[in-house]
Amino acid sequence: MRKPDAPAKTDGTKTNSTNGGGSRLRKGLWSPEEDEKLMNYMLGNGQGCWSEVARNAGLQRCGKSCRLRWINYLRPGLKRGAFSLQEEELIIHLHSILGNRWSQIAARLPGRTDNEIKNFWNSTIKKRLKNSSSSSSSFFLNSGDGSSVNEPQIQAMYMDSSSSSSSSSMHGLPVGNHHDLVPLPKDGLENYYYLHETRVGTENGYSGGGQGMVTEGGGIMGRGGELVLVPPLVSTNLIADDNVDVNEIQSDKAVGGGLFWEGEKVRVGEWEWELGGLMKDVSFPFLDFQVE
DNA sequence: AACAGGGGCAACCGCTATCGG
DNA sequence: GCCGATAGCGGTTGCCCCTGT
Q1: How do beta strands A219-223 and A226-230 pair?
Q2: Protein residue closest to C16, using CA and C1'
Q3: In chain B, which nucleotides are within 7 Å of a protein Cβ?
Q4: Radius of gyration (C-alpha) of chain A in whole angstroms
Q5: Where are the beta strands (DSSP E) in chain A?
Q6: Among the listed residues A230, A255, A253, the one whose alpha carbon sits nearest the alpha carbon of residue A245
Q7: DSSP assignment letter at A123
Q8: Cβ atoms within 10 Å of A277's Cβ, excluding its own
Q9: CA closest to C17 C1', residue
Q10: In this predicted model, what pLDDT tens digit does every residue of A87-131 receive, in sequence order?
Q11: Is this prediction's pTM over 0.70?
Q12: A208 CA to C2 C1', in Å?
């Protein structure tokens, strides 16, 4: 494997005469000189039209290639190196919600690129999940109450996000040590909202044990007993308050500035749904795994 | 020491969305 | 509304290095 910070090789670079109307454009790995040119240009001029960037920076690259190089490698603030356990868990969580929308996952992992996450998922996590399916070893997620989710359940969720549309155990509100990712109806902005809940059934319904949630508009995500602020990716006027009191996550109300549990209703700002109705709607792709 | 296979990463490709004329 | 250019995204490929034999 290539070392994380190994310099890019300069050989193997190809040219392409089919693009750009006859001018031969370089392809393949970027040389340090090219990196320097692009970096200097971007730092001095900022991002503009990428075809202009390529031309003005004196690079024989297509704009698309420049953009990719900048975003995935040269852009300031990028983290290099291995993913931390926290990042890994967050990726797994987010993938369960967002599927292969790498750019949206990357937007919630500062310093990481969609390409990096995609590679990490395809090379590492996917394989680990695959391997873990044949053994009962230790790939798990911690739940808020200290229990863990076993891997076959996770695998079922993550190996193919498009098929994670059924639930054998969801016949109503989350009861017991569930981890439930409950998609709510689309709003007018074509955004999905999700509740991520771990709850312990109580006499009065669903008080206590709340683990937080993930929303498209940003929010708080419970993970392993800690709370993770998930930065908003898409602006929304439905969930707009970033000043969330973490303590409120432990309560049933006022989570994320406008999303409420109220008995058997879910309210997001002015929107409200009957949970029972939601649960009856078999078209909803429930993501559900149960703690053993 | 030499070789083959696999893993991991960077970059490319093709498609779709968006924007401006 | 149409069309071309550009941006952005996700899937795929190719290359290099490591590891096992």
Answers
A1: antiparallel
A2: A2
A3: 6-14
A4: 22
A5: 14-16, 25-27, 141-142, 148-149, 178-184, 193-199, 219-223, 226-230, 259-262, 265-268, 271-274, 287-290
A6: A255
A7: I
A8: 11
A9: A1
A10: 888 888 888 888 889 988 988 888 899 999 998 988 888 777 766
A11: no
A12: 57
